[in-house]
């Protein structure tokens, strides 16, 4: 394991990803909750931070159990922190350095720099520089403006890098990370999807024994992979529940249920559409709609789980970004914990223990694990779809009629994206039912019908997103098909807002 101590940099997760891409396991912990340094930890990386080390409120960590004992790499703030704390000088740069720079000189003999070519491009993002290094520290790379762009410490496996080796624009950054984690820390590159499946199945067997587990399937990637790996461990002691909330895509309920059964899962489909529609009746406020949907979901799930005798565990498809404690730097409480309730937050009285087999994985790793479990690409490559489903894509009151119309529109849109070979390039796509009627003319008749909006975005994690520049011909074809085939719609618009300031969903 590589331990990454997070000082609040926006790039900390990227460091973890770079390490994991080398098939080496890494874990992020907040700097003030450093776990015990056991033999398992082969190396430690200190992240960047929005703080300056000269700031009074800057994070302050005792490295005496780590420095000189375990291989240690400081990145940006991490590098400055060590320089500052061990007797060097860190001061504001004369010119603040952001963006592209090139290494003009480096010590090829140094093990961290091996294989890094001359003039290698690196990405800087800092307002401070290391003006002088502590005794025992020496420079191993410089750029035009920054003499101490990277350093090492005599007779120790301790290093600092001022730039960001983890970002894509540092062209040889991954070589430096490789040098640190493989050559210097001696990690074996054996953390593969297959190895993950084997060890997780073993752990789950030990942990769960003959206990029964209930899991709510959503049709999405995370819950499908979680269910499959649990099923490998405990077989039919896993009870899956797939709820039709009446707000799914066209034919999705039947198709997904079918494919789950094909996978050998013990799954019960529960059609609760009418319950959801009844709860949504008369509601127009987005938050009230979300709450109503969440509440019915909990009720249905609760009722169904009571039918499973002696269930002790609740399985969830929680993944790593949902559980990382991120360091808040904007004042307020010093930490925020992002928690995510895949099943909408269960009532306390259910008294189930929670088992989350994927909680250490990033999304793309979940897909790789899914592939190694033999789950079909059709499930693994699915676009994200919100829990409240079409309920938050029908603006205003939700009715069964509107759901039917929107399902048709959405199906045409998604099928045409697939036909055009664009589905996998788009991160998420869907249609929105607008609460306005507009005038149109069909044949010689005046129409006064609803308008829909199409939304397609690119993104990596849904936190930020841009609208997709879909080809006009494809958009034209989709619009024609929708207006000609879907009764009740006479106008199609395309959403060209990015997130921020808009969001992906309209509600
Ligand atoms: P927004 O609209 O916040 O959406 O930009 C970001 C991502 O989250 C999805 N989303 C949800 N997913 N329950 C979910 O499971 C929800 O209530 C929910 N709201 C939004 C959205 O589809 C997008 O992928």
Automatic annotation (TrEMBL):
The active site is at residues 76, 164, 166. Pathway: Purine metabolism; GMP biosynthesis; GMP from XMP (L-Gln route): step 1/1. Gene3D superfamilies: 3.30.300.10, 3.40.50.880, HUPs (3.40.50.620). One of its GO terms (cellular component) is cytosol. It comes from the Bacteria. One of its GO terms (molecular function) is ATP binding. The keyword Magnesium does not apply. Its EC number is 6.3.5.2. Keywords: ATP-binding, Glutamine amidotransferase, GMP biosynthesis, Ligase, Nucleotide-binding, Purine biosynthesis. InterPro entries: Class_I_gatase-like (IPR029062), GATASE (IPR017926), GMP_synth_C (IPR001674), GMP_synth_GATase (IPR004739), GMP_synthase (IPR022955), GMPS_ATP_PPase_dom (IPR025777), NAD/GMP_synthase (IPR022310), Rossmann-like_a/b/a_fold (IPR014729). The keyword Oxidoreductase does not apply. It catalyses: XMP + L-glutamine + ATP + H2O = GMP + L-glutamate + AMP + diphosphate + 2 H(+). Residues 191-382 form the GMPS ATP-PPase domain. ATP binds at residues 218-224. PANTHER family: GMP SYNTHASE [GLUTAMINE-HYDROLYZING] (PTHR11922:SF2), GMP SYNTHASE-RELATED (PTHR11922). Catalyzes the synthesis of GMP from XMP. Homodimer. HAMAP family: GMP_synthase (MF_00344). This is GMP synthase [glutamine-hydrolyzing]. It comes from Brumimicrobium salinarum. The gene is guaA.
């Amino acid at each position: 394991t590589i331990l990454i101590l997070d000082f609040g940099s926006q790039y900390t997760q990227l460091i973890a990803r770079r390490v994991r891409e080398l098939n080496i396991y890494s874990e992020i912990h907040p700097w003030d909750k450093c776990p015990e340094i056991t033999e398992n930890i082969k190396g430690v990386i200190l992240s960047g931070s929005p703080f300056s080390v000269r700031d009074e409120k800057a994070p302050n960590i005792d490295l005496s159990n780590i420095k000189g004992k375990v291989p240690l790499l400081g990145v940006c703030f991490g590098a400055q922190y060590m320089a500052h704390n061990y007797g060097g000088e860190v001061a504001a740069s004369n010119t603040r350095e952001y963006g592209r720079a090139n290494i003009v000189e480096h010590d090829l003999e140094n093990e961290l720099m091996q294989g890094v070519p001359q003039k290698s491009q690196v990405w800087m993002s800092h307002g401070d520089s290391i003006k002088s290094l502590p005794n025992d520290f020496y420079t191993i790379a410089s750029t035009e403006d920054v003499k101490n762009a990277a350093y090492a410490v005599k007779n120790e496996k301790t290093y600092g890098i001022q730039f960001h080796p983890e970002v894509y624009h540092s062209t040889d950054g991954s070589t430096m990370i490789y040098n640190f984690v493989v050559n210097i820390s001696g990690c074996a590159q054996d953390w593969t999807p297959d190895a993950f499946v084997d060890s997780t199945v073993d752990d789950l067997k030990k942990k769960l024994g003959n206990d029964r587990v209930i899991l709510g399937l959503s049709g999405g990637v995370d819950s499908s992979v979680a269910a499959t790996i649990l099923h490998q461990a405990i077989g039919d002691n896993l009870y899956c529940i797939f709820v039709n909330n009446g707000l799914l895509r066209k034919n999705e309920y039947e198709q997904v249920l079918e494919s789950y059964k094909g996978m050998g899962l013990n799954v019960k489909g529960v059609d609760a559409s009418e319950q959801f529609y009844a709860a949504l009746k008369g509601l127009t406020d987005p938050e009230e709609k979300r709450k109503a949907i969440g509440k019915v979901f909990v009720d249905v799930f609760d009722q169904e789980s009571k039918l499973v005798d002696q269930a002790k565990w609740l399985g969830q498809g929680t993944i790593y970004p949902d559980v990382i404690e991120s360091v808040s730097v904007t004042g307020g409480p010093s930490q925020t914990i992002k928690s995510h309730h895949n099943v909408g937050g269960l009532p306390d009285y259910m008294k189930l223990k929670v088992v989350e087999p994927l909680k250490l994985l990033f999304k793309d790793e979940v897909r790789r694990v899914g592939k190694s479990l033999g789950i079909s690409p059709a499930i693994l490559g699915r676009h994200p779809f919100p829990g409240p489903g079409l309920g938050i894509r029908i603006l205003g009151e939700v009715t069964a009629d509107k759901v039917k119309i929107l399902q048709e529109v959405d199906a045409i849109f998604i099928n045409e994206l697939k036909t055009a070979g664009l589905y996998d390039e788009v991160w998420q796509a869907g249609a929105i039912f607008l609460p306005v009627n507009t005038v149109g003319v069909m044949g010689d008749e005046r129409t006064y019908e609803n308008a829909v909006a199409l939304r397609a975005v690119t993104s990596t994690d849904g936190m930020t997103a841009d609208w997709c520049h879909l080809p006009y011909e494809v958009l034209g074809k989709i619009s024609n098909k929708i207006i000609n085939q879907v009764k009740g719609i006479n106008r199609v618009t395309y959403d060209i807002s990015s997130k921020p300031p808009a969001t992906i969903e309209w509600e």
